Amino acid sequence: MTKQTRAFLLILAMSILYPSLLIAQHTRKEYIQKYTDVAIREMKRTGIPASITMAQALLESDNGNSKLARRAKNHFGIKCGGSWEGKTFHQDDDARHECFRKYKTVNESFCDHSDFLKKDRYANLFKLSATDYKGWARGLKKAGYATNPKYPSLLIKIIEANNLHELDKGNRKTDITQKPKNNINNAKPKAQNNEEPEFVLSGKHHQVKLNNRVKYIVVKSGDSFCSINKEFDLMAWQLPKYNELHSDAELSEGQVIYLQPKRRKAEVGFDFHKVKQDETMYEISQKYAVKIKKLYEINLMPFDTQPEPGTKLNLRKKRK
Questions:
Q1: Distance between CA 287 and CA 279 in Å, rounded?
Q2: 88-91 and 98-101 as β-strands: parallel, antiparallel, unpaired?
Q3: Three-state SS for 305?
Q4: Along the 320 residues of the chain, how does pLDDT read in single tens digits?
Q5: How far are the Cα atoms of 270, 301, 303 from residue 306, in angstroms, in the given order?
Q6: How far apart are CA 16 and CA 177, in angstroms?
Q7: Alpha-carbon distance 167 to 234, whole Å?
């Protein structure tokens, strides 16, 4: 037997016994660059921080290199469960021959992961800030997503080592894995503040108007939070928060929806408002683009009470 034949048989045997050795392995950086847009898209659709989605995917799929990820395109280790009606993939895990969900594409895996976390058992997570990745990591473990007691610290370590928290701001073009050089001439970073991240408005179906220096649109028939989010590239939590509405609120034609946070007081020149019959504090808040909490504070009114018709409400200065 020649050396060439022996080499060929050795390679053939290895390909049968250890096929993963002949498949190129993804690096962590390659995985992040490949699926950043998917993680951000899911964040905007459901409110789950992109940093959490990405860190879970990296950890559960071994950067996309696990057998489950390669053969079933399951990047989050989600098992079949009683409600699953799709294709399945079996492999040993906590028990022998366990059933895992199998997807047609990796995108389906990301989408199903987001929907999976919308179950009631994870409801408390959505009360957290969209940038509180540490709270999400600990909450996932507490809700029973993983049995490993170190699961939260593993996720947090991945997020911080790869600057994944930048994804939660919607930063998709920046190379988030590139760490700054340690150069004494580098300017110190500016202190973080509580301002919302800037975004570019490019409405295709709505005219963007301005009230009290706050951008808004008027709802058209068929509009929803989801459709407006998609049009203006907003995250799922933003419109309900800016307009002080529940996330499942139905929109009505002609309704004003703000695309930015309302302000603490009305525009110069609008000092007072005379309350009309059946007019609510929320309607007045929307009319002048002033946060409803601030309206109550300015007028020394108990929260959730409504003003009497004819009442003169202050819009800028606190009532004496």
A1: 11
A2: antiparallel
A3: coil
A4: 665 556 555 555 554 544 444 456 779 999 999 999 889 988 888 889 999 999 999 999 999 999 999 999 999 999 887 778 889 999 877 678 889 999 988 988 998 999 889 888 898 998 888 789 999 999 999 998 888 889 999 999 999 999 999 998 876 644 444 444 333 233 333 333 333 333 334 456 788 888 988 889 999 888 888 888 888 888 888 899 999 998 888 888 999 999 989 999 998 889 999 999 999 999 999 999 999 999 999 999 998 899 999 999 999 999 88
A5: 20, 9, 9
A6: 36
A7: 14
Tens digit of pLDDT for each residue in 211-246? 988 889 999 888 888 888 888 888 888 899 999 998
Q: Which amino acid is at 197?
A: P
C-alpha distances in Å from residue 138, one per residue of 15, 122, 135, 143: 41, 12, 5, 9
In DSSP terms, which residues pair with 210 in a beta bridge?
215
Q: At what angle do helices 50-61 and 106-116 cross, to 10 degrees?
A: 120
Paired tokens of 23: 């498949």
Whose tokens are 């930048």? That residue is 166
Q: Please list, in sequence order, all residues whose beta carbon lies within 8 angstroms of the beta carbon of residue 307, skipping any fewer than 6 positions away.
A: 275, 279, 281, 299, 301, 313
| DSSP assignments along 22-49, one per residue | GSPPPPHHHHHHHHHHHHHHHHHHH---
The C-alpha atoms of residue 73 and residue 226 are separated, in whole angstroms, by 27
What are 295's two structure tokens? Answer: 């309206």
Could you please report the per-residue DSSP string of 220-265? Answer: -TT--HHHHHHHHT--TTHHHHHTT--TTPPP-TT-EEESS--BSS
Q: Where are the alpha helices (DSSP H) in 117-237?
A: 133-142, 151-161, 225-232
Consecutive H or E run containing 211: strand 209-211
Structure tokens at 71: 């053969």
- Hey, how many other C-beta atoms are within 10 angstroms of the C-beta on 106? 18
